[in-house]
Specification:
The protein has helices spanning about 1-35, 35-60, 70-80, 80-90, 95-105, 110-120, 125-135. By secondary structure, it is mainly α.
């Protein structure tokens, strides 16, 4: 009995949905007959807008950013090792010594040693000084 009621309710629901769809189509047809010029103008405008955006994106491309090389001459002249450079990049990203140690898989004491050597090589007293000097030299962004 329950299955029969379920099927009957679903059948009535489908009939109501079909009736609603027919009424909506009739209303749509009446609307299109009375406002065809408005709809056509809208579609043409939307087409030109899409075309303009597409052409604008193709023609007015932003130039590719120049490749960042990290100024290897400055690194070599200061004697910055690849590991020290990695620590410097992490410092520039705003990470703490513990975070750098976890990221590079070394002990926090090793990070402190690298930071101290970087301060010496860059002539800095603080992290902000080291980052400013490294950015000035083009070592980090």
């Amino acid at each position: 009995m329950k299955g029969f009621l379920w099927k009957r309710a679903a059948g009535y629901g489908a009939l109501l949905a079909a009736g609603t769809l027919v009424l909506a189509l009739l209303d749509y047809q009446r609307l299109m007959r009375t406002h065809f010029a408005d709809a056509a103008t809208f579609l043409i405008g939307a087409g030109f807008l899409t075309l303009g955006i597409y052409i604008g994106m193709r023609v007015v491309k932003t130039p590719a950013a120049p490749a960042f090389d990290g100024n290897p001459q400055a690194q070599a002249s200061l004697g910055i090792s690849p590991r020290e450079l990695a620590v410097l990049m992490e410092i520039a990203a705003g990470r703490s010594n513990k975070e750098i140690a976890r990221q590079l898989d070394v002990s926090p004491n090793t990070v402190k040693t690298h930071v101290a050597r970087l301060f010496e090589k860059l002539g800095a007293k603080r992290r902000t000084d080291a980052i400013a000097k490294a950015r000035e030299l083009g070592i980090v962004r």
